[in-house]
Amino acid sequence: MIEIIRKNNICIKANDKKVFLDPTISESFSFISHAHEDHLPEIIVDEPFCTQETFELIKAKNPSFKANIVKIGKKINFDDFSVEFLEAGHILGSSQIFLEFDGLSILYSGDIKTFGLTAGKYRVKNADILIMESTYGLPIYKFPSVEEIISELEKIFNNENNFSLFGYQLGKAQDIVKILNMIGIEPTVTKSVKTYCDVYKNFGIDIKFTEEKTNIIVRPTSLISKFIGDENSIVFTGWSLTRDFGIKSLPLSDHCDFYQLLDYIVEVSPKKIYVVHGFVYEFCKEIEKNLGIEAIPFSYDISNTSLYSFFSRNQ
Ligand SMILES: [Zn+2]
User: Model's pTM, two decimal places?
Assistant: First the structure.
């Protein structure tokens, strides 16, 4: 019998084995989808498994971090189950985690972006059960293309002023640098952004930036509060469609929008879906309305009262 439980983030129980996905406490067997802090363990009992890229990104801020390295696209067999990491397109090294237990396949999306700019190329596999995020799981979240973002940026830019561009320092900031490179700009990056840009470059991602002062600076979003009201500051985030940040904003995200999430589900073609993050209740209703697939809101607030059990599909 296989059980999926909302405990220590996500736990899959198969007979006497426990598998943890992006757990808070890393114990055997734990798998980390990517290097964003909200997906990392706070306590390590047993070393988790992650990609080389994720390992290096975590080590850039936490040099004592240790892990078992997994190669993307290479299946690993354990006694009662197998694991394969698949590119998620969200940030460098980000992965979906594909597991097989005695004929039952489970795909965990981690954070997903089906059209990434500086991450690996997203790839998908069919699975019986999909455990997925829904950060932008409402129909209002429809993101423009990169070309449209570039066109908006070019309207804002002029040669006279200095501009500060804000994005999350890991993932988004590198996308911003890439977009600027696409229009012939090699921006200045702040120290914390550079730390991650250097790891990207070490893995062969083609981004060009400088520490010399230029009139366009890419800064981490943590510094926005110092720039509120500044006409020459722009933040890049999917939330710009519904929130006011006190400066200009453009909807560039490293997550799927609502429509891309639905397309992703169609590609995975699961029989059942657990939604673990974002607008879980609303998105489950949308899945059932648009795709007719059973979808279960799997937030922490039901973790202690609900256990969902699965038998193999033949039973
Ligand atoms: Zn993330």
Answer: 0.93
